[in-house]
């Protein structure tokens, strides 16, 4: 991947969007889904993922569910009702940001 700093500000939105389409996911599953969807271009490290998950949980946007899998306790994350609403808001903001960046990078000059 080129510049991971460009993605850093979007990590929370990426997590919310992934959880929007599922019942629940655990951390490693989130990292693998991102890797799969971006064909390996974006790799989320545990050092970036878990602080983001904890922050989203503290903001009341995620619920955590513990389950025992293969004699290990696994934390599953899912959106709260507030998280669902916030996902819509953040995706809208991100789409607007992308449109503005496209306009700035590829301006369509008109002669009037």
Automatic annotation (TrEMBL):
<feature type="domain" description="Transcription regulator PadR N-terminal">
    <location>
        <begin position="15"/>
        <end position="86"/>
    </location>
</feature>
<protein>
    <submittedName>
        <fullName>PadR family transcriptional regulator</fullName>
    </submittedName>
</protein>
<dbReference type="InterPro" id="IPR036390">
    <property type="entry name" value="WH_DNA-bd_sf"/>
</dbReference>
<dbReference type="InterPro" id="IPR036388">
    <property type="entry name" value="WH-like_DNA-bd_sf"/>
</dbReference>
<dbReference type="InterPro" id="IPR052509">
    <property type="entry name" value="Metal_resp_DNA-bind_regulator"/>
</dbReference>
<dbReference type="InterPro" id="IPR005149">
    <property type="entry name" value="Tscrpt_reg_PadR_N"/>
</dbReference>
<dbReference type="Pfam" id="PF03551">
    <property type="entry name" value="PadR"/>
</dbReference>
């Amino acid at each position: 991947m080129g510049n991971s700093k460009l993605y850093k500000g979007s990590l929370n939105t990426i997590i919310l969007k992934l959880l929007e389409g599922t019942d629940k996911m655990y951390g490693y599953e989130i990292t693998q889904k991102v890797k799969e969807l971006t064909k390996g271009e974006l790799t989320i490290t545990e050092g970036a993922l878990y602080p983001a998950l904890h922050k989203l949980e503290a903001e009341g946007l995620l619920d955590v569910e513990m389950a025992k899998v293969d004699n290990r306790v696994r934390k599953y994350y899912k959106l709260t009702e507030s998280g669902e609403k916030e996902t819509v808001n953040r995706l809208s903001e991100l789409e607007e940001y992308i449109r503005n960046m496209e306009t700035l990078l590829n301006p369509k000059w008109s002669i009037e």
